[in-house]
């Protein structure tokens, strides 16, 4: 018992020292890893994937690699929900807004670019965090035919989930917010009556849905324009909800059929609250437990934790700006399969 308590105190102090310094040294507990470590953040649209990835990247020395194929294109920042420069908090982002809007971006190109970004991040001593909603691209990267990715990298999968009914309500409100932020003007500037909606950024939800409105806008009176606008908005909301359902189905397939070991965080309560209460729920249910799980993944202290009477004794109470309360233990237990 004395040895276990000593191990616990030493481990906790080491974690706190690293957290308080604002940077985690990647090789504290396992200096001779055979595989480099990669974080992959998944979830349906609107669940908070980007938010979590930035939370993690501001607590660990990390860089973010975008895996949303529409966000890889330049332009339509509002339509594609790209994180703003302010929201990035100075964290380096790769594969974000780099492609010509008319270019094709097949999965093979994504694999090449993502692989280069991973290696360049690791070369700078940074933890690669892959985040985005294009699950088929993530699957192709991780489960490549020759098993090269898995042989080179050890993955920690974080899944931000939420009740579909709650999420559908949120994405509907998000579309309304996009309208207020100037989405129609953004679409109008890129509108081309001869455009091919099967190529490039014009495949993004919101672009084809507004075709009829933008095509006929100059010839309609105010009432007619309002009707067409409302129809376009309704179609965009409906197609966004369908996308969320498809994304969730793919995640379930990866977990249940392919055996991906995912840590699931239920953010439903976050969407049911507002203001400070929502922020606290996010910290308690998603961000805080994620920080602890990632630190466990990076430093391999699960075995040491098992030797103590309770895993929660290893949880820091303040992690570089995220208030991690002691009762994140249930969220961590639920997140770990």
TrEMBL record:
It is an enzyme of class 2 (transferase). One of its GO terms (biological process) is tRNA processing. Transmembrane segments: none annotated. It holds the Pfam family IPPT. One of its GO terms (molecular function) is AMP dimethylallyltransferase activity. Keywords: ATP-binding, Cytokinin biosynthesis, Nucleotide-binding, Transferase, Transit peptide. SUPFAM superfamilies: P-loop containing nucleoside triphosphate hydrolases. It comes from the Eukaryota. PANTHER family: ADENYLATE ISOPENTENYLTRANSFERASE, TRNA DIMETHYLALLYLTRANSFERASE. Involved in cytokinin biosynthesis. Catalyzes the transfer of an isopentenyl group from dimethylallyl diphosphate (DMAPP) to ATP and ADP. HAMAP family: IPP_trans. This is adenylate dimethylallyltransferase (ADP/ATP-dependent). It comes from Juglans regia.
């Amino acid at each position: 018992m004395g040895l276990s308590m000593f191990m616990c105190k030493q481990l906790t102090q080491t974690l706190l020292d690293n957290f308080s310094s604002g940077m985690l040294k990647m090789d504290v507990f396992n200096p001779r890893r055979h595989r480099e470590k990669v974080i992959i953040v998944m979830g349906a649209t609107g669940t908070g994937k980007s938010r979590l990835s930035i939370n993690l990247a501001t607590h660990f020395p990390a860089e973010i690699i975008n895996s949303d194929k529409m966000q890889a294109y330049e332009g339509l920042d509002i339509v594609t929900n790209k994180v703003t420069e302010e929201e990035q908090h100075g964290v380096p982002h790769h594969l974000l807004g780099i492609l010509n809007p008319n270019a094709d971006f097949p999965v093979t190109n994504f694999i090449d670019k993502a692989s280069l970004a991973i290696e360049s991040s690791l070369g700078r001593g940074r933890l690669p965090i892959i985040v985005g909603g294009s699950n088929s691209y993530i699957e192709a990267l991780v489960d490549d035919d020759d098993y090269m990715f898995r042989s080179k990298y050890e993955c920690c999968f974080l899944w931000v989930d939420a009740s579909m009914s709650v999420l559908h309500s949120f994405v509907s409100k998000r579309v309304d917010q996009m309208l207020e932020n100037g989405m129609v003007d953004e679409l109008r500037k890129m509108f081309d009556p001869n455009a091919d909606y099967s190529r490039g950024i014009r495949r993004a939800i919101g672009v084809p849905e507004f075709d009829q409105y933008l095509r006929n806008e100059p010839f309609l009176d105010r009432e007619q324009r309002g009707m067409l606008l409302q129809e376009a908005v309704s179609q965009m909301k409906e197609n966004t909800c369908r996308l969320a359902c498809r994304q969730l189905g793919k995640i379930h397939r990866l977990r249940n059929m392919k055996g991906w070991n995912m840590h699931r965080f239920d953010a439903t309560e976050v969407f049911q609250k507002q203001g400070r209460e929502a922020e606290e729920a996010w910290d308690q249910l998603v961000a805080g437990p994620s920080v602890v799980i990632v630190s466990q993944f990076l430093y391999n202290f699960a075995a040491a934790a098992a030797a103590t009477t309770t895993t929660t004794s290893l949880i820091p109470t303040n992690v570089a700006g995220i208030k991690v309360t002691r009762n994140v233990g249930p969220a961590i237990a639920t997140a770990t399969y």
